[in-house]
Design goal:
This protein has 574 residues and is of the alpha+beta class. It has helices at 3-33, 39-56, 63-67, 69-91, 119-130, 149-158, 170-174, 188-206, 211-227, 232-249, 259-274, 281-284, 299-328, 335-342, 349-380, 382-396, 411-423, 456-460, 504-521, 563-571; strands spanning 133-138, 141-146, 433-434, 439-441, 444-446, 451-454, 522-525, 541-542, 548-549, 555-558. The longest helix has 32 residues, at 349-380. It is globular, with a radius of gyration of 32 Å. The structure holds protoporphyrin IX containing FE. Protoporphyrin IX containing FE (HEM) binds at residues 181-182, 194, 197, 244, 358-359, 362-363, 366-367, 370, 426-427, 430-431, 433, 493-496, 499-503, 506-507. It comes from Hypholoma sublateritium (strain FD-334 SS-4).
C-alpha cells in the first residue's frame, strides 16, 4: 500500500477511535450518572468506551499508534467531555424526585397501565403500593392522583393559586367546549364566568329566587312519575334540565321529547367520555386533532363534527331566543334576561353565552345521575327508605308535600342526601385540575402543566373516616341526638378551591326537595321476577368522568296514605 494512503487510513483510524470513544463515553456517562449523579460510574464508562472504541476498529490502528497518539488524543477529548458532562450534572440545580408511582415504559410512559374502567378504584390500589400522592406519565404528560383529603385541601385550597388551572384537552376543543367554564384556563375570562355564575346563582339562592322554580319542577316530576313510572330515568333528566333551563333562560322544557334536552343529552354523552385521560389518544397526543374526519379510523373526528354542531346550538339558540324575547318584552324572568336588561353593552355576550351553556351542561347530568342512584339506593336498602318515610310522616303528615321550610326539621332526609353524594360520588375523580407553575410537595417535584386528579371516591370510601364505607347508611351523619352533624362533608362532592362547583346550592336544594317529595309520595321497590319474588337489579354505570347509570327496573307505586296529595298532582296537567 502507498505511504500516503497508509497515512490517510491512520488519520481516519485515530479519528474514528477518538470519536467513537467520546461518543460511547458520552452515552455511557449519561446513562450511568442519571439519577445518582456520581462521577465513579462516569470514569468506568469512559474506560469502557475507550476499550470498546479500540476493539471496534482494530483494522484502522497501526500498532505504533496504539501505544501513543490515539490513546492520548482519546484521553484528552474524553476528559474534556467528561468534565463538561460532570460539570453540567453536578452543577445542575438538584430537583427532587417525582412522587412515587408505577414504573414508566420508554416513551409511552404508563399508557398501558392506565386503568380502562373505574380508574378511581385502580388508583386506590396504587395508593396502597405507592402512598396517597401518586405520579405517572402518559407520553410525556405528567399526572398526579391525590387519594387523601389532606393532600387535596393542601394543594387545591391552600395552594389554589398554583392548582386551579385545567389541563388542555384537545378533544374538548374539538367538540366546541374549549371556552366553557369547566374547561377554561385560569385567568381573566374564567373569573368573569365564575363571577356571573356565582352572582347569579348565589344571589338567586340567598333571595330564594329559584326555590319556587325548583318546587314547581319537583311537582312536575312527581306528576310524570305517577303517569309513566317506568320512564323514571328519563324523568330525572327532564327534571334537572328543566330546573336549569328555567332559571338560566326562563325556558319551560316541553317534557321528554324537548329538542334542547335531546341535544344536550347527546352532547354530554360524548363530552364526558372525552374527558378521561387516555379516553382518546388525542388528549395525550394533541397533534392527532389535525387528522381529517375522512381519514380511516378517525372515529373521534367524525363524532366531533356533529358534537361541534350540537355545542353551537346549545350555546347560541336559547341565548338568542331570550335576547329576542327581551327586545319584544315577552321574556320570562331569568338570569339571561336580567343580565341583558342590566348590561349597557353587548360586549360580554359571547362570554355569557358560554357561561350559560356551561351551567346547563354541568347542571343537568350531575343532578339526574344523583337522583337515579337514589332510586337504586332505596330498592337496595328498604329499611333506610322506611326510616325516611317515617320521619316525613311525623313532621309533615300525609296532607301535603314537604317544602323547603321543613328542611331543618328533617335531619334524616338531610343525612340521606349526604350519604347519597358520598356513597356514589357523581364525579368520582372531580374534574381534572392542572398546575400553573412547578411546585414541590412533601419533597416531591410536581412540574408545571401536571394534571391533578382528586380521588373523591377514595376520600369518601376511606374506612378511617367512614365505617363500612360501602354500606348505604345515612345514620353515620347523625349525632347521638339524631341531629344532622355539621361536618360539611357533602362539600367534597362539589370540588375544591377556586374551581368548586358554582351550582352547589342549586343542586343541593333540587336534590333535597325531590328526594323528600318522592319518599313522601311513592314506595320504591325492587321489581318482581316471574315467580313474584323481588330481585335486586344490578347497578352499573357507563364509564366516563360522570359515570351515567345504566338502565335498571324498579317498581314505583303511589302511597295510599298520600291519596289527597296524589289526586292534586294528577290534576296538575289537566
Ligand atoms: C349533584 C350535582 C352536582 C355535583 C355533584 C357537581 C359537582 C361538581 C364538581 C366536582 C365540579 C368540579 C370542581 C373542581 O374542579 O374542583 C363541578 C364543576 C362545575 N359545576 Fe357542578 N355539580 C353538580 C351540579 C351542578 C349544577 C346544578 C350546576 C349549574 C347550574 C353546576 C355547574 C358547574 C360548573 C359551571 C362547574 C365548573 C366550575 C369551574 O370549572 O370553575 N354543577 N361540579
Amino acid at each position: 500500500m502507498p505511504k500516503s494512503l497508509r497515512f490517510d487510513q491512520n488519520s481516519e483510524g485515530q479519528c474514528l477511535i477518538t470519536t467513537s470513544s467520546v461518543f460511547l463515553l458520552f452515552l455511557n456517562s449519561l446513562a450511568a450518572t442519571g439519577p445518582k449523579r456520581n462521577v465513579v460510574p462516569m470514569y468506568k464508562a469512559w474506560k469502557r468506551s475507550c476499550y470498546l472504541g479500540l476493539s471496534l476498529c482494530p483494522e484502522f490502528v497501526p500498532s505504533n499508534m496504539l501505544s501513543t497518539t490515539v490513546p492520548i488524543a482519546a484521553l484528552a477529548v474524553s476528559l474534556i467531555v467528561l468534565y463538561l458532562v460532570a460539570h453540567r450534572r453536578l452543577h445542575k440545580p438538584k430537583r427532587p424526585p417525582y412522587p412515587p408511582g408505577p414504573a414508566p415504559s420508554l416513551i409511552i410512559g404508563n399508557l398501558l397501565d392506565t386503568p380502562p374502567t373505574e380508574a378511581w378504584l385502580a388508583y386506590i390500589k396504587w395508593g396502597s403500593m405507592y402512598g396517597d400522592v401518586i405520579h405517572f406519565t402518559i407520553l410525556g404528560s405528567h399526572i398526579v392522583v391525590l387519594n387523601s383529603l389532606d393532600d387535596i385541601r393542601e394543594l387545591f385550597e391552600k395552594r389554589s393559586n398554583l392548582y386551579s388551572d385545567r389541563p388542555h384537552m384537545a378533544t374538548i376543543d374539538l367538540l366546541g367546549w374549549g371556552q366553557s367554564t369547566a374547561f377554561l384556563s385560569y385567568g381573566g375570562p374564567l373569573r368573569k364566568h365564575r363571577q356571573f355564575a356565582q352572582q347569579a346563582i348565589i344571589k338567586h339562592s340567598s333571595l330564594s329566587g329559584f326555590l319556587p322554580i325548583v318546587t314547581k319542577k319537583v311537582n312536575t316530576l312527581l306528576h310524570s312519575l305517577l303517569a309513566t313510572p317506568d320512564d323514571f330515568m328519563r324523568h330525572h333528566k327532564t327534571f334537572s334540565a328543566s330546573v336549569v333551563m328555567a332559571i338560566v333562560y326562563g325556558y319551560d322544557v316541553a317534557g321528554v321529547n324537548d329538542h334542547f334536552m335531546a341535544v344536550a343529552d347527546e352532547t354530554m354523552d360524548i363530552m364526558t367520555q372525552a374527558m378521561l385521560p387516555g379516553a382518546t389518544m388525542m388528549n395525550v397526543l394533541p397533534v392527532l386533532r389535525f387528522i381529517p374526519p375522512w381519514f380511516p379510523g378517525a372515529v373521534f373526528q367524525r363524532l366531533a363534527v356533529s358534537g361541534r354542531k350540537m355545542a353551537k346550538e346549545m350555546q347560541e339558540v336559547p341565548f338568542d331566543m331570550v335576547q329576542k324575547q327581551t327586545a319584544d318584552g315577552t321574556a320570562a324572568p331569568s338570569l339571561v334576561s336580567n343580565f341583558i336588561k342590566e348590561s349597557k353593552s353587548t360586549q360580554d355576550y359571547d362570554l355569557l353565552k358560554q357561561a350559560c351553556a356551561s351551567l346547563y351542561g354541568a347542571g343537568t347530568d350531575t343532578t339526574a345521575t344523583a337522583l337515579t342512584t337514589f332510586f337504586h339506593a332505596m330498592i337496595a336498602n328498604p329499611d333506610v327508605q322506611a326510616m325516611a318515610q317515617r320521619e316525613i310522616e311525623n313532621v309533615v303528615g300525609n296532607g301535603r308535600l314537604p317544602n323547603f321550610d321543613d328542611r331543618p326539621s328533617l335531619p334524616y332526609i338531610g343525612a340521606l342526601l349526604k350519604e347519597l353524594l358520598r356513597w356514589r360520588p357523581v364525579l368520582p375523580l372531580c374534574l381534572p385540575h392542572s398546575t400553573r407553575q412547578n411546585d414541590v410537595y412533601k419533597g416531591y417535584y410536581i412540574p408545571k402543566g401536571t394534571t391533578i386528579l382528586a380521588n373523591i371516591w377514595a376520600i369518601y370510601h376511606d374506612p378511617r373516616q367512614y365505617k363500612d364505607p360501602h354500606n348505604f347508611d345515612p345514620s353515620r351523619f347523625l349525632d347521638e341526638n339524631g341531629e344532622l352533624k355539621d361536618d360539611n362533608s357533602e362539600a367534597h362532592a362539589f370540588g375544591f378551591g377556586r374551581r368548586f362547583c358554582p351550582g352547589k346550592h342549586l343542586a343541593s336544594n333540587s336534590l333535597w326537595l325531590s328526594i323528600a317529595s318522592i319518599l313522601a309520595t311513592f314506595d320504591i321497590q325492587a321489581p318482581n321476577n316471574a315467580a313474584g319474588v323481588r330481585v335486586l337489579p344490578p347497578m352499573d354505570y357507563a364509564d366516563a368522568m360522570i359515570p351515567r347509570p345504566l338502565p335498571f327496573s324498579c317498581s314505583i307505586t303511589p302511597r295510599a296514605s298520600m291519596s289527597k296529595v296524589i289526586k292534586e298532582l294528577q290534576e296538575l296537567r289537566k
